[in-house]
Specification:
368 residues; mainly alpha
């Protein structure tokens, strides 16, 4: 398991990279700027390149000028502990302390410490790992990413590995990015695999998933294994590799069924399993799984009705009629009308209308 070391930030040398960035924002000529505030450009260069003794006083003077709070060894120790805690929680998908971690990072950023670039990288990691994130969260944090990216030379090797994870989310030329090198962190492969999936590059996504999965297994990170399998399952069903999806989903369901801590993983895997069953024509399994359920969502209802129709037209009509009698809203009366048309006639207009009912797109593709 990776351990992030921030001991270098107890010295003054790395902060001159940060000062370079700050100075560039206020002056096009660094030497002139330094002379204007009565600091020696040659001393600045020595402190930056060699970490000379004058570095401490220059750091204090520049912190005073930019109204930045200086580090202490205790603060760096606290920061290192928190960075490792946050990374560990993200890596193992543990979100119980997410709000506390996020609030701590924000409060530290507001204090405007000299190590703010590290805090902003940590904030970006937390933003992108938010399980309640909206669809436009990546776009909303693009400005933060560009700022964090501008601090690249400030980060040590361990932090660059974390930067690489978020870079995978924002890369424009994703093909060249993931083909260009081997990545140190499996979370980078994880992020790239998701990107490829949403770009409908399913073969590439499976390849990247397996790169991440091998390392997760090695580190006994089974929650991440189950999570990456969700992406693989979605790819299999999109590629119509229903047998592969069925077998992987079945095995994962058996692994997670008896452990309540993996309830989410089980339920999510079940969705892929149902899609694979529909694709394979295993309608009896779908009926057995879904018909006893009291609270059935719009996707599951489509799958169940489709399975019933392909098993017994009589059972289908009876079940459909019973469900229609239970609904009162016009919207859901229309829903059953559209489902009926799609199942019986593959009606394209009905298919379009069903896109407004939050039904799994892969299931609709299999049915049509």
């Amino acid at each position: 398991m990776k351990k992030i070391d921030l001991s270098i930030y107890k010295t003054y040398k790395p902060y001159f990279v940060y000062f370079d960035i700050l100075i560039k924002k206020v002056s096009s000529n660094k030497d002139s700027f330094l002379e204007e505030i009565y600091l020696s450009p040659s001393s600045y260069r020595r402190a930056k390149n060699e970490g000379s003794k004058i570095g401490k006083q220059l750091t204090i003077d520049l912190c005073n000028y930019f109204n930045i709070n200086l580090f202490t060894n205790g603060l760096i120790d606290e920061l290192e502990t928190k960075v490792n805690e946050v990374y560990l929680n993200i890596y193992y998908r543990k979100y119980d302390n997410y709000e506390d971690d996020y609030n701590w990072v924000i409060s530290m950023i507001d204090n405007n410490y000299i190590f703010n670039p590290i805090l902003k990288l940590l904030r970006l990691l937390l933003e992108l790992s938010n399980t309640k994130k909206s669809n436009d969260l990546v776009e909303k944090n693009k400005e933060l990413y560009e700022e964090v990216k501008s601090y690249e030379l400030f980060y040590n090797e361990d932090l660059l590995e974390l930067l690489e994870i978020v870079e995978a989310t924002y890369q424009n030329d994703i093909d060249n990015f993931y083909l260009s090198k081997e990545f140190k962190n499996e979370l980078t492969y994880n992020s790239l695999a998701s990107r490829c999936f949403y770009d409908r590059k399913f073969i590439e996504s499976i390849y990247l998933c397996n790169k991440a999965k091998d390392r997760y297994i090695k580190n006994e990170n089974y929650r991440r294994v189950y999570y990456i399998n969700h992406v693989i399952l979605a790819c299999y069903n999109e590629l119509k590799k229903y047998t592969e999806a069925y077998e992987l989903a079945y095995n994962q369901m058996m692994s997670t069924k008896s452990d309540v801590s993996y309830k989410y993983e089980y339920l999510y895997t079940e969705k892929h399993f149902i899609n694979a069953c529909i694709g394979l024509g295993k309608h009896d399994i779908v009926i057995k799984m879904l018909k006893p359920k009291e609270d059935i969502n719009t996707t599951e209802m489509v799958a169940l009705l489709y399975a019933l129709y392909n098993t017994s037209k009589k059972d289908y009509e009876e079940y459909l009629d019973a469900q229609r009698k239970l609904v009162t809203s016009e919207r859901y009366k229309k829903y059953f009308e559209f489902v009926d048309k799609l199942i019986k006639t593959k009606d394209k207009a009905a298919l379009e209308e069903l896109n407004n009912y939050h039904i799994n797109e892969t299931l609709l593709k299999i049915i049509k």
